[in-house]
């Protein structure tokens, strides 16, 4: 499967190999069913875990590519991405990834990468909540480092402008279609008060709530997201169907009930993205189809392949050699 390769996006991270779904067919044929069963078990215990696992793959891929860098704990040489602004007190699901990894190490030692586990778990989380399925290209290897600064700089923040968010996506080789479709992930999962408080009290420095937020919905949110305190209080990103992967995220945006500023700006700041929001609100099949395509595209961001990187034995630390 070697191809004449150089760096860049689009399935060839510079190791000279493309990812492909059959990567573990001979080396670990049960890999995918093992991931799926542990995701299902975790989901049965707590439905939110699906959202958390989907987000981990995103926060991995946007920092040095999909290389499992987000999973590394701090150590002598590593400043963990878990400490970054987007991840601190927010990224979760690491214990589930640990459980999957230890089951896979028993089944086929040092064969399945942590980066691939994240990609498969993201797909399985989408499916188990009612979303689309897709074949996950595989063969990513794991990084031997992390980037705390990359995590702070490259992952979009909820109060970034539309243009900044789009620029951060383009830096990864993703476009406006990917941005709108992948934002549809916010059809499941939670946000902390601190991630959207500004919209409730002082959106643009004029002591007024965000005019693009429905006033009665805003009043409801203020009850558990006060001016100060309650930073960690949790709210559904999609208040209609928070554990179901559907297109209510887009319908909510049309009703001025998107939770994050980064959700609502997809409608209010750019004509093309507004058209996409309307199209996905109207047609969930169209959303599902594009979501699957964009997830594969995101999963192809700068993977380590060939002999680059390693297959970690423990997703939290690099191997010693
Ligand atoms: C477009 C730019 C994006 C911004 C600004 C953004 C921002 C956020 C924020 C602020 C939260 C809540 C975090 C907290 O308060 O703890 C969140 C949650 C979440 N995000 Fe995004 N996000 C973006 C795109 C994405 C993408 C591309 C995906 C997946 C492909 C994704 C998946 C999720 C999920 C599933 C949750 C809920 C996690 C949970 O409940 O544990 N987001 N996002
Ligand atoms: Ca990474
Ligand atoms: Ca939903």
TrEMBL record:
Catalytic activity annotation: 2 a phenolic donor + H2O2 = 2 a phenolic radical donor + 2 H2O
UniProt-annotated location(s): Secreted
UniProt site (Transition state stabilizer): 55
Transmembrane helix listed as a keyword: no
UniProt entry keywords in alphabetical sequence: Calcium, Disulfide bond, Glycoprotein, Heme, Hydrogen peroxide, Iron, Metal-binding, Oxidoreductase, Peroxidase, Secreted, Signal
Sequence positions that bind heme b: 186
Residues binding Ca(2+) 1: 60, 63, 65, 67, 69, 81
Main location: secreted
Span of domain Plant heme peroxidase family profile: 18-319
Free-text comment on the cofactor: Binds 2 calcium ions per subunit.
SUPFAM superfamilies (alphabetical): Heme-dependent peroxidases
Cystine crosslinks: 28-108, 61-66, 114-315, 193-225
Binding site for substrate: 156
Keyword Cytoplasm: no
Coiled coil stretches, renumbered: none
Cofactor(s) of this protein: Ca(2+); heme b
Active site: 59 (proton acceptor)
EC number: 1.11.1.7
GO molecular function: heme binding; lactoperoxidase activity; metal ion binding
Similarity comment: Belongs to the peroxidase family. Classical plant (class III) peroxidase subfamily. Belongs to the peroxidase family. Ascorbate peroxidase subfamily.
Name of the featured protein: Peroxidase
Source organism per UniProt: Cucumis melo
Phylogenetic classification of the source organism: Eukaryota, Viridiplantae, Streptophyta, Embryophyta, Tracheophyta
């Amino acid at each position: 499967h070697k191809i004449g390769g150089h760096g860049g996006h689009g399935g060839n991270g510079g190791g000279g190999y493309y990812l492909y779904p059959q990567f573990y067919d001979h080396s670990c044929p049960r890999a995918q069913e093992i991931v799926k069963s542990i995701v299902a078990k975790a989901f049965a215990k707590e439905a939110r875990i699906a959202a958390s696992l989907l987000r981990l793959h995103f926060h991995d891929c946007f920092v040095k590519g999909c290389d499992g860098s987000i999973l590394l704990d701090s150590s002598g040489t590593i400043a963990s991405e878990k400490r970054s602004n987007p991840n601190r007190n927010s990224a979760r699901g690491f214990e589930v990834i640990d459980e999957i990894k230890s089951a896979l190490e028993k089944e086929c030692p040092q064969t399945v990468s942590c980066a691939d586990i994240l990609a498969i778990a993201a797909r399985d989380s989408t499916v188990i909540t009612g979303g689309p399925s897709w074949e996950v290209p595989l063969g990513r290897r794991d990084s031997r480092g992390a980037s705390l600064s990359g995590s702070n700089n490259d992952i979009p923040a909820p109060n970034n402008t539309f243009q900044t968010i789009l620029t951060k996506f383009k830096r990864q080789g993703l476009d406006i279609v990917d941005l709108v479709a992948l934002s549809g992930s916010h059809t499941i999962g939670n946000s902390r008060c601190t991630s959207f408080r500004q919209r409730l009290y002082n959106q643009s420095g004029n002591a007024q709530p965000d005019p693009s937020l429905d006033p009665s919905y805003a009043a409801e949110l203020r009850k558990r997201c006060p001016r100060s305190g309650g930073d960690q209080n949790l709210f559904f990103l999609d208040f209609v169907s928070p554990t179901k992967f559907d297109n209510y995220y887009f319908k909510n945006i049309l009703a001025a009930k998107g939770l994050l500023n980064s959700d609502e700006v997809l409608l209010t700041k750019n004509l093309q993205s507004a058209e996409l929001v309307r199209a996905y609100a109207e047609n969930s099949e169209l959303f599902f189809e594009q979501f699957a395509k964009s997830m594969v595209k995101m999963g192809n961001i700068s993977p380590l392949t060939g002999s680059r990187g390693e297959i970690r034995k423990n997703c939290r630390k690099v191997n010693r050699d």
